[in-house]
Specification:
Organism: Sylvia borin (Garden warbler)
Helix content: over 70%
Order of helices and strands: HHH
Keywords: Coiled coil
InterPro entries: CC-FHA_domain
Shape: elongated
Protein name: CCD27 protein
Structural class: mainly alpha
């Protein structure tokens, strides 16, 4: 039953398609007959014309063809003008982009040169900082030796007491000032007694 129903549906579809094709065929045949009638009328008219009329008809057709061609040429010229304008605009854009590319490359070169200069300055500053660090270490070392000598000289004087713990710079200066004052007083006392 299912197979029969399927075949019936296919047959109905085919019949519908056949009717459509027949209808199209009839329409085409009708159009063909109309074209034949028109062609026959033109042929009859052309045959009934005199040679002068035929030439006039040919001239009219040629003029019509010339007008059509002129219109086509005008449209082509208009399109060509638009294309020329578009090409000019695109050429301007291309030139602008090329100029931007050149400027960008120059800017990149300037940036690279500036980066090299900055790197050179940074290297010089780093070298200078290293030299300053070495000099500072030397000065610090000399200062420590000098400080130790001062402490040793200050607290090796007769009657001085050994320092308790680590001394600050102010304590060292106070001890030195005390010794200087005492020696100045002693020298003044000797001078007042007439001793050299």
């Amino acid at each position: 039953t299912g197979a029969i129903s399927s075949l019936q549906r296919q047959m109905e579809i085919q019949e519908s398609e056949l009717r459509r094709i027949r209808s199209e065929k009839e329409l085409l045949q009708k159009q063909l007959r109309e074209r034949e009638v028109q062609l026959q009328a033109v042929s009859d008219k052309f045959c009934s014309m005199t040679e002068e009329q035929r030439q006039e008809e040919i001239v009219v057709m040629m003029e019509e063809e010339n007008r059509n061609l002129h219109q086509v040429v005008t449209e082509q010229e208009s399109q060509l003008a638009e294309q020329g304008k578009l090409i000019s605009e695109l050429q301007g854009i291309i030139n602008q982009l090329r100029a931007e590319v050149v400027n960008t490359r120059l800017h990149l070169l300037e940036q690279k040169q500036a980066q090299k200069d900055i790197q050179s300055q940074a290297d010089a500053l780093q070298h200078q900082a290293l030299q300053t660090r070495v000099a500072l270490e030397q000065i610090t070392s000399k200062f420590e030796r000098y400080r130790n000598k001062i402490i040793q000289a200050t607290f090796s004087v007769e009657g001085s007491q050994d320092p308790v713990g680590e001394l600050t710079d102010n304590e060292v200066l106070e001890a030195m000032q005390k010794i200087i004052n005492e020696r100045a007083e002693f020298q003044h006392m000797l001078k007042s007694k007439g001793s050299k």
